[in-house]
Amino acid sequence: MGKFITAVLSFFYALNTVGNQVKVGYVVHGPPFHELTNEKLSGGLVYDVAQAIVLAANKQPHFMKLPTNRVDDFLIAVKIHMICFHNPMWVNKPERFHWGPEMFHRKEYFIIPQEVSDITDYSQLKGKSIATHLGYVYSNKVTDLFEQGISKRVNKQKTTAMYNILQLRRVHTLIDNEISFNYLKKQGVATGLRLSSLVDKKYPLHCVFSKGAPEIVQELLNASQEIISNNTMLTIISKYKPTKNNQLGAVNKP
Fold first, then answer.
1. Which pLDDT does position 195 carry in this prediction?
2. Same structural domain for residues 131 and 183?
3. Range of the domain at 168
4. How confident is the model at residue 26, as a pLDDT?
5. Rounded mean pLDDT of the chain?
6. Is there a domain that residue 28 lies in?
7. Which of 82, 146, 186, 250 is the most buried (most CB within 10 A)?
8. 84 and 115 together in one domain
């Protein structure tokens, strides 16, 4: 009888756990956004923010690694409930999803070796090879350079791989955001490199949610606003602050 009761209680506990679970998708690009332990997401900016949102909704996160360029499909099929971070400009028909509030802003710079001349204009990229994130959408200006064959795009899945090939001078420059650059500079990965003067673009980042689970998603949307309003987001961002004044463009409490 005791074993039967234990089995029943375990069954209902498992049901409650599944019902209370939020499936959080991620595509690995490496630190500071993704930190892995035994091939599972265990830290980084994406982990910290997504976990804060889910816990604020009184639920439990279940992180799921996604194939590159499959985020939209997984959201539509409700194979995941949410992903951080995303931008409506990067997807076709962004109205297919629920978009959370702006969490913070970031700038994408052209990063170059210390000894080379500064990049101040796109015309200087003629004949240059540029390391980029696989699947990322860049500005119209740099996209035109790639499509017209004026510059060569060299795609890499992981951020550190872009820095490695620039360190080896296999490309002339790479495009990355200031958060990542400053973090990797501190880690010794970006030694001998610097931000050029040319910013490819500046944009807000959101968490995005599936429309296929309206009740749970509304709780997550409310929780997203809550962690901004109570300054949890600013506290998380402070872990990744790159400059003396630690300004990453986090959204302030209204």
1. 97
2. yes
3. 106-202
4. 96
5. 88
6. yes
7. 82
8. no
Contact 210, 76 (CB under 8 A): yes
> What would the 3-class secondary structure string for 40-106 be?
EEEECHHHHHHHHHHHHCCCEEEEEECCCCCHHHHHHCCCCCEEEEECHHHCCCHHHCEECCCCEEE
Q: What is the pLDDT of residues 105-154, one digit of tens each?
A: 989 999 999 999 999 999 999 999 999 999 888 999 999 999 999 999 99
Q: What's the pLDDT at 242?
A: 54
DSSP state of 250: B
Asked if 87 and 213 sit in the same domain, the reply is yes
The total number of residues shown for the chain amounts to 254
Q: Per-residue pLDDT for 194 more than 70? A: yes
Tell me, yes or no, whether 18 and 81 share the same domain.
yes
Domain with residue 42: its CATH number is 3.40.190.10
**Residue type at 17 in one-letter notation:** T
The total number of structural domains that make up the chain: 2
